[in-house]
């Protein structure tokens, strides 16, 4: 009568315990449902088996058998509240118009890499916002127009990067750059080609015309950006008479193989002026660095599956044609500019997992969780070595790597920090205000822009909700860069920090979506309403 029957599908013992404490009764899944729970791993991948069993037992304590008895009595009743891993894994017969479910349909418009890439391309037509200010530029390689746009972007980035390398010259003294591998290599990526090295001696200087070519290309590109080509039929900068195959080969020798670059003082001044003008038009000019590294991702995968880094155009295109990953159709790959100029902690790359909840799509209503956590890599950050252990912060990736001997000992052994620890670190850097004045506002704006860009694609249900996990990198200037949004963020306690925070966000989510209906003034913990349309 009170409509307090629930079903939990997946590894969520805390949700089960909290609902029982509220007087709710569980309609337990039949055997097929239990099999689905087992099908979606992992419960607690960081806990020993005995600790995982203890965790489950603590949440399922039923000394008098009362919960089992009540569950038996409601076995034929439809649940009023469903918490599940994935909406697709839920029996359609359980989904009724009036019950509350913790997922919406068709959220792949912003919770897959391919969907987010496409949705944010539409953002300027929906909002007065530029995705290039918070989302590293991204292309779907299975779409011909976008593949061509990526090729042009790759070439232009190489030209800009050459100018940046040229600025590192001291007068007319040649600069020798560090040698960098072409791509990430490892036991699990045998399909990746090994680094190719130039046959020319590493120290042999390149002709000055290489800088002239880069200057000419960037001048033409600046003219396009300034709309100077409106009244004349100006070709694309990549359609010029420059031999791009040769240019990219020579640029790669300079940036990645230690070749020396010769330029004059006049060219150096031209580089400074041109890059200064381009910075006003390209929000990602600083972030993109000077090594032209790109990251290739399966469009619908998660947990770091299939992701690789590369510096070779032909490698990107070859992988887009030939590589496949489990459950990914051939061609559904995205390529994204790697954030080269990023903030590291103790010389180690990290990212931020930030939660938020959508309780309605019409009107769009968004709640931001004020606690989050950082995930560290296992090996020190380096753009000269592109192994996954240095560049992919996912817990599901890093759990396979031992901490590197040359890792700074101040990096936490469990590779997790709370946002409070991060704020203390920023204060030590003299950036005490960066969290509240730059990072948090930037993350909120990025999340809202992503949601608004995909709003017309989502199939919403009144009364339902969804908890999401957004992943951000932090630039050298503390600006957050959105990488992806996950529709089923893990609640597994991989550390002491996540054990506490994951329990808290589940508790506060139930307060927000259940308790607040009966008591609008009740505590909603760390949730903050940031947008109501």
Automatic annotation (TrEMBL):
It comes from the Eukaryota. The keyword ATP-binding applies. The keyword Signal does not apply. Residues 179-197 have a biased composition (Polar residues). It catalyses: L-glutamyl-[protein] + glycine + ATP = glycyl-L-glutamyl-[protein] + ADP + phosphate + H(+). One of its GO terms (cellular component) is microtubule cytoskeleton. InterPro entries: TTL/TTLL_fam, TTLL_monoglycylase. Gene3D superfamilies: ATP-grasp fold, B domain. Keywords: ATP-binding, Cell projection, Cilium, Cytoplasm, Cytoskeleton, Flagellum, Ligase, Nucleotide-binding. GO terms for molecular function: ATP binding; protein-glycine ligase activity, initiating. This is TTLL3 monoglycylase. It comes from Certhia brachydactyla (short-toed tree-creeper). The lineage of its organism: Eukaryota, Metazoa, Chordata, Craniata, Vertebrata. The gene is Ttll3_0.
